[in-house]
Every structure is written in structure tokens, then in C-alpha cells.
Amino acid sequence: MTEDRQPERSVGNRSPRCEAEVPDAIGPRSRRIGVYVCHCGGNISDYVDVEKVISDIQDAGDVVVAKTAMFACSDATQQEIVADIEAQGLDGLVVASCSPKLHTYTFRAVAGRAGLNPYEYSQVNIREQCSWVHTDDRDAATDKATALVRAGISRTRLTTPLEPLVVETLPHTLVIGGGIAGLRAAVGLADIGLRVTLVERELQLGGWVGRFGPMYPHGRDGRELVETLVAEVRRRSAITVLTGAEVVGKAGSFGNYRVSVRIGGDGAASLEVAVGSIVVASGFETYQPEAGELGYGIDGVVTLPEFKELVDASADGPLRWQGRPVRSLAYVYCVGSRQAADIEGANQYCSRFCCAATVQTAVQVAGLDPAIRQFHLYRDMRTYGKFEPLYTEARKVGSVFLKFAPEAPPEVRREAGGGLTVTVRDLLTGNEELAIPVDLVILVTGMVPRANGELVSVLKLPAGSDGFFNEIHPKLRPVETVVDGVLIAGACQGPRTSAESVASGLAAVTQSAAVLKKGYTELDPLVAIVDPLACTACGDCLTACPYDAISMTEGADRHAAVISPTGCKGCGGCVPICPENAIDLLGYTNAQVSAMIESLVAVPA
């Protein structure tokens, strides 16, 4: 796929390119490398002899500083590293500590403050990859840590200075999804001065929340919340709303995406929107039980969303089902959640919101008619955080809670007389079998990922084993994806409450603003490069790239592959595919990886 790329530009004294040439002979030039091995407060040093690691690597060539630190990431140690770089003239840095996902940027910043190029730093993971997986053998864990640090030194010895890629960004964001997270994100983006295009697949905005009445824990009406947000969206001229629309294509690169939107289904109108970032808030679906699953399909067996709509519609009168008053009901928890691994396509995760949503609904039912008998059949109650009082309140208004074993779920059947009976073995009463006659059975269904195959294909969104979209790190980068400039928010990330969805939507707003308001952004220069003289234009790399960052160009006398540095994510998938070894990966060149391997397999004298 050939894409037109927006030009990169220089900002201030920043270079708009990386060092695209790897020296022919990085060779034996002398280096001055500092090595710091972290105790991690005992997480590493309880299982690895960090002092021995330092002793073993001091004889490694080019190491002029070798120290241990209780916490390498602490301010005090960072200041010590800066001082060592300046005083010892270090031109390479190795920190052996925890996962690079946690502190790569921390130590790059340390190097930068001391005047050392940040890309001449290597982080070696001796916590997750060593101490935590070898707690039973301290000597072997120590030897492995030493080998990993030696490999890090070998990589650092062959590093070259690199500069970030600087690209212009458009002050415009595309928000996909018109639920509560997408609506709130659109309002937030507009309020900080960015243009917004909001794309919603349905004909109406609001998502699931727009269908609900009072919600926990605040008791505010979901429909009213959505109506308020929609009014705020309509009031802002910077927001363009497209309903009945879907994203069907994407070109360009971070900061300069060109997104194709189809409006009105197949064969209908389409348009192209130029944006700097994309916020995906496509929401979720509710689990749909199979026919016969816990009685589903029997008249009077409904899901929690269906029952919630029934309760909301009964706010001014008695609770009725098919014209008959409801006098008793049973809730069966964890339907479609926490399923056994041997079930095909099992949803093994906890859907989180269900317990609190159910007890809040029970309190609402008690407010309609305190005489209605309510039985809660649960595996574990997980009204987490501030929602615990709802559980207590439900018990106070008469709800009865019965605990069943996961391997012995309740059975639901319709009696000859037309009533429903739920049979369950209650662990709280000595595993006694109870038969409970009720008018309604409510299956407490959780959230499942929405079917977004086309969107995933277009945006290259990463999904986890549960089917929900994956962020880079749940704590450090909770709304960013591996695709630069594509953010995720709300329940498309996983089951969550409306308040949590709004919070993640606002987090996506701040991430977009941090980049787009400046007018430019800096990208990692750890990207693949092509030697045009070695390339034979075979095209194997074109299909190997999952990000469509490689295209074929025609020169004066030959064709050759070219890699867009702003489109490349540095995954390295194209490197081993090339039959001519014409592709290399900056920061992890063939020479560096080979040197690391040789260090790991070296036999001690």
C-alpha cells in the first residue's frame, strides 16, 4: 500500500530525521559506559546477588563506572547517574532493573539531562526476566543476571546517537463512538481549542447509558445525562457530528491521519477527514446467553439490561411483567463472566460493574414495592470501592443473598402451573438445596467486546485475549495504544462503569491536547531502514509490515523499498523477511543483536 506522507519539519534546533545510516565499521572505538544494577528494594536483590553481578561485569570492556542502587529510579540515584555521566565523561549507560515498560523514558530523560544522547542508554530487565522467575535458585539467577547485563553492555557499545523524528500535527481529533465516553471526550477536546469530528455508527447518540434510568451510585438518570451531553456537543461549533457513519479507511501517519468515513451504509456518501489523533470510544455489547443457558428462552427469564429497562419504565407504577404484578424475583450472577476455561470462547474475566448494578437495581425495585421478595444467587459479591454501601443497603431493604459454587450453578425451570422455580445449593446454609418459586429470573450478564472487525483492520488496534482493546500500560499509559496517536477510552478497553468511562475519555483528551496543541510531536527514531543498494525490490517486506509503513519507489534505474519513518513502529518484523539482509533496525541493528547473543552464549573462562 503506497501512502503519501506529510513532510517532517525541524522545530528549533531539533533535527527532523534520525541517523538513518549505520556506520560501516562501528568497530573497536573505545567507549566509556556506566552500569547501574538496582536492588529494587529487594525485588531483585532478594534473589540475585547484585554485588556479584557488579564484580563480574567490571572486567567487561569499556565499563568505567559500575554501581548498585537500592532504587535506581529514585531522585537521589538519578542525580548520582547525572553526576557520574558529567564527571566521568560517560558516552553509554546501562541500567539493570525492572521492565523497560516502566522506566525506559525515566532513564532516557536522565541521560538527556546529563548531555548524553538518550538512545545510547540500554535498560536490562533483571526483575521480571530474572529474579521473579528464578526465586528458587539464587546462584543461577545471579549468573543469568550477569549474562543479561553483559548483553546490555554489548548493545550499548555499538549504539550511535539518534535524534527524535519531529512531525507536524493537525489540531483536529476524530472521536469514534457517541456513547458517554465519546461525548464527554468531544466536549473536552472542543473546550481546549481543538476541532472534533464525532463518528457514531447508530443513528442516535448516547450508547447504552442513553437507554438507562437512574444509575449507581449517584442515582442520576442516564437518559438525562446523555441529553445534557448531546446538548453540549450541539452547542459547540468546533464539533462535527456524523451519525449512521463508520470509519472505513486510514492513510497518513501520526499527526497527519486521513480517515475515510462512510455515511449511510454501503454505496452511500463518503468523506475524508484530516486529523492529528484518533480517540476510539466504540463501547461494548452485553452478553447474550445461549438458548437454554440458565433457563434463557423460558418466558420470565430476562437479562439484567432488559430488566433494568422494565424497572425504569415502572417508575410511576407497580412492577409488572406481561400485565401481571411481580411479587418475587431471583438474580443469577456471573452469567457470561468468569466462565470456565474449557468453554469455547470463554469470557474468563470479571465484568466488574454487574454486582453493583444489580444491587442498585434491587434497591430501586424495593423503592417501587418493598413487599417484592428479591433473591440474589451469587458466586462472589464484588461491589468494589465506594459501591460497598449499595450491597449493605440492598440487604437492609430485604434482599436475600445465597452463595453457590461455580461448579454447581442454579437451575431454572418452568412448573406445570406456569411459575418459575430456581434450585440452588446455598453454601451459606451448609450446602442445603433450596427451591425458590419466583415470578421473574434476571440473568446478570456482563460486558463483552463489540464486534469491530473492520475498525480493528483499519486502525491496526491491538486486542487482548479477552477481545477488548489493549492499552500500552494500565497504569503508566492507560489510554495510549502501540499505534501512535490512536487512543482508546471507555468500555472498549474492558468492563467499567460510566464514571470510569468518562475518566478515561478525559485522559484521552489530555493526551491528544499534549501533542496537538504544540503543533508538532517527537517520535522514537528506533525505526527500520533500507539499504537501497542491497534491496532487490522483491516485495516480501510489503506484506510483512502490519502498519503499511513500507512502499516501493522507482528510482532512475531501479526499484527499491522505502520505509516511512513516521509510519514505522520499530517492530522489526520486516528485518528477517528480507532475503538480501537489506533492512536493519536502528537501536537494535544486526550487529547489536549479534553482539548481545554472543555475550549471552559466551563460555566463562
CATH topology of the largest domain: FAD/NAD(P)-binding domain
Instruction: Look at the helices and sheets and give the structural class.
Output: alpha/beta
Number of domains: 3
- Would you report the number of β strands? 30
Oligomer: single chain
The CATH class of the largest domain, by name, is Alpha Beta
CATH architecture of the largest domain, please?
3-Layer(bba) Sandwich
**What proportion of the residues form beta strands (DSSP E)?**
15-25%
Unreliable sequence segments:
1-27
The radius of gyration over CA amounts to: 29 Å
Q: What is the typical, i.e. mean, pLDDT? A: 90
Ends apart, CA distance between termini? 52 Å
Main sheet properties: 5 strands, parallel
Helix content: 25-40%
Widest sheet, order of strands: 8-7-6-12-25
Number of helices: 13
By CATH, the superfamily of the largest domain comes out as: FAD/NAD(P)-binding domain
Q: What sort of overall outline do the alpha carbons produce when their principal axes are compared?
A: globular
